[in-house]
Design goal:
Strand content of chain B: 5-15%
Radius of gyration of chain A: 26 Å
Oligomer: heterodimer
Structural class of chain A: alpha/beta
Strand order of the largest sheet of chain A: 9-10-8-7-11
Helix content of chain A: 25-40%
CATH superfamily of the largest domain in chain B: Glutaredoxin
CATH class of the largest domain in chain A: Alpha Beta
Helix content of chain B: 40-55%
Shape of chain B: elongated
Distance between the termini of chain B: 32 Å
Number of strands of chain B: 4
Strand order of the largest sheet of chain B: 2-1-3-4
CATH architecture of the largest domain in chain A: 3-Layer(aba) Sandwich
Radius of gyration of chain B: 18 Å
Order of helices and strands of chain B: HHHHEHHEEEH
Number of helices of chain A: 24
Shape of chain A: globular
Chain lengths: 597, 160
């Protein structure tokens, strides 16, 4: 980093870019230019800082000042006040919600305090489009060590001893996977990185690829060395244009530096990586479906065995790992298996990245040691529930996972505890819900997703989920009976037991777990034709409280179907026969006079 | 397949053949070829699929199977400003459904349709990954975060 005295990092993750962080960087640069400081201060677009809720984030080094919710118009102030006069801009600092104090360093914020970053180690620290910055933070050192000092089996042993398990969801031991692939004979083998992050509400892999693409490239090369492959493929969603762009740049730069391609670091080892694009099919996260998709076919899963390790891409031995799994590998090689194994719980080592979203104060990307309690994640890191509402449930693992409730908040986050509690680790989506979310409607939301994404190959998933969805539809419309609830449960179990792949095998989980934890809510829908959360349209009525209504006519004027009548300055009435339950009156009423029943 | 018949112009035929050639007319590259063709033409009507099939020397049914399997590929032309509402979980719980309703009302089209003047088309997509800004709406290349149902009209105004 040449002669710059100061650096300003501007978050270039998708979330912050959406809030015009490009413009912030541009304004910062032009302000520096104006003041003749362009050679002293460097503006860098970095990867995701994780604190998306408070984006766009701008960080000033070396003093580590962390600015939140920055607007393009704030750029000049930052340069004039902070850079020139040395006074941090107070109104852009983070306000601790508990104490009201201004905090300027990120590590002192609740959001960051309980985090431990391994996979995200470089995200938000480096310019992901500049390989030199990655190298300055040890990128490709692990690859160098592996190629010059270690035998493939020694590397596999380290990964095995570290206890690293697949971060894509299933949690298969990574070292063992590599060992199996290494022992299958074959001249032509492939290393595949699964970047088909299809979970709605999950953005872990995207952030790693956008923030630190080299960690994944390096790990793939290490894997190639271990299993005897010279070609790597990254299967990435076409919906991630920024991650694709940064990967392309990273691959090009790594090739220029001789870190990919032929004769890497002069050791005679050849390894190169190409990209393959997904086209919007959730099922392609399943490894056999992913391989078919890479071959240009419909992404339908096939029966295992044969496992990809024996017969994968183009029928050759193939090792598939997820982005986050790969991102851990270089750190393990450099710091040792024992270092990694000391973090986490007995059977789940290291850390896990989660995309924390939903009705929570601090939406963002977090990484915590395995074994961290859900309560810590939601209350401390997540800053509790938005608008002071009551916590209701947290959904982990996306459409394949389950809902956990208040009583599970002290569950440690690890593969086995989550499975035992009726959810699963999944790839890392974590959606928090509050009291205003109807659990039946949420279960239906996930099932709608599965119905749309089922590849249609096998009947339990294709037909069974459709039937489940119809049952849920009946329930949310108040037309179901208690018998339907037991049908729901039975059918869910059958789908689980008889589906070919994990998409079908796990698709009833959101339904089954809500049935278990929120049976009362289901009962209220079928028995009393009532939606306790007030979300299921068919079951709610809007009425105007005559005590509260001042007769301002705001609701009547806004009502799209003219269902509200009443004289000025007198209580209004909603005609239930005309009302379409759009909720506009609730939004327009300034006196909280419209009640949802 | 699509009902509207189109006729490919000679230079378009040439362009598609060129794209196939870039990928060595390899059937294994079908998805990459389709990505590039859709990028160029905006959609993949039957006529284009037939041409791609003959260039890669595979059955049209195979191309059709792939096009209809993946939600990214479309056989209908999109509007000048395609509107995509994120329906990922984070956006859903923060009210994306109401935003969709509002857009449907404002443009008088359903999901998957295009306005008669060809200006806007409406679709839902699964998670753009900007969950911090939920609910998120994309119009063309531009992304709008924290969209409230009330602000829909104002946002659309920008494109009129």
């Amino acid at each position: 980093m040449a002669n710059y005295k100061m650096h300003i990092l501007v978050c270039g993750g998708t979330g912050c870019k959406t809030s015009e962080s490009d413009m912030i960087a541009h304004n910062l640069r032009s302000s520096l230019q104006q003041h003749g400081l362009a050679d002293d201060v460097q503006v860098v677009m970095s990867g995701c800082f994780g604190f998306c809720e408070k984006g766009p984030i701008v960080k000033v080094l070396p003093d580590n000042t962390f600015y939140v919710s920055v607007k393009p118009s704030d750029a000049a102030t930052i340069i004039e006040e902070h850079i020139i006069k040395g006074r941090p801009v107070q109104h852009l600092l983070y306000n601790d919600p508990a104490t009201g104090e201004k905090i300027s360093e990120s590590r002192k914020m609740d959001f960051y305090q309980q985090q431990y970053r391994i996979a995200l180690r470089n995200c938000g620290f480096i310019d992901p489009e500049n390989i030199d910055e990655a190298i300055a933070r040890d990128a490709y050192q692990a690859l160098g060590k592996v190629l010059t000092q270690m035998k493939p089996q020694e590397v596999i042993d380290i990964i095995k001893r570290s206890g690293l398990r697949g971060r894509g969801g299933a949690g298969f031991p990574t070292g063992l996977k590599w060992e199996i692939a290494s022992k299958v004979p074959g001249e032509e083998k492939y290393v595949v990185c699964n970047a088909d992050e299809g979970d709605p509400g999950a953005f872990m892999d995207r952030s790693i690829l956008e923030g630190d693409p080299h960690s994944v490239l390096e790990a793939m090369a290490i894997c190639g060395y271990c299993i005897g492959a010279s070609q790597g493929l990254i299967y990435i969603r076409a919906e991630y244009p920024l991650a694709i762009e940064r990967l392309k740049i990273a691959i090009r730069q790594a090739r220029e530096y001789g870190l990919l391609g032929n004769n890497i670091m002069g050791t005679g080892f050849n390894f190169d990586i190409t990209l393959r694009y997904g086209a919007g099919a959730f099922v392609c996260g399943e490894e056999t479906a992913l391989i078919h998709s890479m071959e240009g076919h419909r992404g339908e899963p096939t029966f295992k065995p044969p496992f990809p390790a024996e017969k994968g891409y183009k029928g050759k031995p193939t090792n598939v790992n997820n982005v986050e799994t790969f991102a851990n590998v270089p750190a393990i090689i450099l710091n040792g298996a024992e270092w990694f194994a000391a973090i986490g719980t007995e059977k789940s080592k290291g850390t896990k990245v989660f995309a924390l979203a939903g009705k929570i104060n601090n939406v963002g990307l977090i990484e915590v040691p395995m074994g961290t309690k859900l309560r810590t994640v939601i209350n401390d890191i997540g800053g509790g529930i938005k608008n002071n509402k009551k916590f209701k449930a947290v959904q982990i693992g996306g459409p394949s996972g389950g809902f956990l409730t208040e009583k599970h908040l002290d569950t440690p986050i690890d593969y086995d505890s989550l499975t035992e509690a009726g959810s699963m680790m999944g790839s890392g989506g974590m959606i928090v819900m509050d009291e205003s979310d109807c659990m039946v409607a949420m279960a239906k939301f996930y099932l709608d997703f599965t119905v749309e994404e089922s590849c249609g190959k096998c009947a339990p998933c294709r037909i069974g989920n459709k039937r489940l969805d119809e049952l849920l539809e009946k329930i949310t419309e108040g037309k179901a009976t208690e018998e339907d609830l037991s049908l729901l449960r039975n059918l869910g179990q059958v789908i689980k037991d008889t589906s070919l792949c994990m998409l079908g095998g796990s698709s009833p989980n959101p339904v089954l777990s809500t049935l278990e934890h929120f049976y009362d809510e289901y009962l209220a829908h079928v028995r009393d034709h009532r939606c306790p959360a007030g979300q299921c349209k068919a079951l709610v009525h809007y009425i105007i409280d005559p005590e509260q209504c001042v007769g301002c006519t705001a609701c009547a004027r806004a009502c799209p179907v003219n269902a509200i009548s009443g004289e000025r300055k007198k209580p209004h009435v909603i005609d239930q026969l005309i009302c379409i339950k759009c909720g506009t009156c609730v939004e327009k009423c300034k006196f909280n006079a419209v009640l949802v029943q | 397949m699509s009902t509207v018949k189109i006729e490919l112009k000679p230079h378009q035929v040439e362009q598609i053949k060129q794209i196939c050639k870039e990928f060595n007319n390899d059937p294994g590259e079908l998805i990459n070829v389709l990505h590039k063709v859709q990028n160029t033409f905006g959609y993949l009507p039957a006529e284009i699929q037939e041409l791609v099939a003959s260039e890669l020397n595979i059955p049209v049914a195979k191309v059709y199977g792939v096009v209809t399997f993946y939600s990214f590929f479309t056989m209908l032309p999109k509007g000048q400003y395609p509107i995509s509402v994120c329906m990922g979980t984070a956006c859903y719980v923060r009210g994306a459904e109401k935003v969709v309703e509002e857009i449907k009302k404002a443009l008088n089209i359903k999901i998957g349709e295009t306005t008669p003047d060809g200006k806007f088309s409406l679709s839902c997509l699964r998670c753009v990954g900007a969950c911090g800004l939920a609910p998120v709406v994309m119009i063309g290349e531009k992304t709008f975060g924290r969209v409230a149902p009330e602000s829909v009209k104002e946002i659309l105004q920008e494109f009129l």
